[in-house]
Design goal:
Order of helices and strands: HEEEEEEEEEEEE
Mean pLDDT: 78
Number of helices: 1
Radius of gyration: 30 Å
CATH topology of one domain: Thrombin, subunit H
Structural class: alpha+beta
CATH class of one domain: Mainly Beta
Strand order of the largest sheet: 6-7-8-9
Strand content: 25-35%
InterPro entries: 6-blade_b-propeller_TolB-like
Amino acid sequence: MKTALGKQGEALHTEIDTIIQGMKSDIDDMDAQHIATIDRQEDAINRTITEMTEVIQDLKSDSKLWTCGDDNILRLYNLQGELLRAVQTKSGNKPQDIAVAQSGDLVYIDWYNGSINLVSDSKCNILIAHGIGHHCIHIIDLDGHFLCLIDNCGIQFPKGLCVDSRDNLFVAEYASRKVKKLQSYK
């Protein structure tokens, strides 16, 4: 009887050891999968950080110009009109307008949210694109007082405005899809 009990005990221990080994193997497999997932996420984060660093450097340059159009891509061009970079909006929606914030961040407004197209020059005057039927740009001071109107330079349907550090005004025309540079807009 003791011998039979001993054999039964050995059989149970062997079965338990087999189950435990299987569970340990399953845990090792799960660990490997988790580590692989974490590695993929880390790679994606590092790529995003690299891209964001490059975008920030591009934003600090006066020799380049960010644009948006009828798709969900923000494009960076040099002053010769060559495409340097294309970035898809995070939401996947079409941006109505883009701007570079004082912090240096590239900001866009989704197509469905609307836009005013405000830009300021080096004297903190505010420039407002007035494209629907008027084809002009208003310049007002910080208190909202009218300073001047740009309306006789062949601009049609101004949609986007950008002023560089030398107060060159870049006007994006909606209908023609052109960007015009006004060197002395004052």
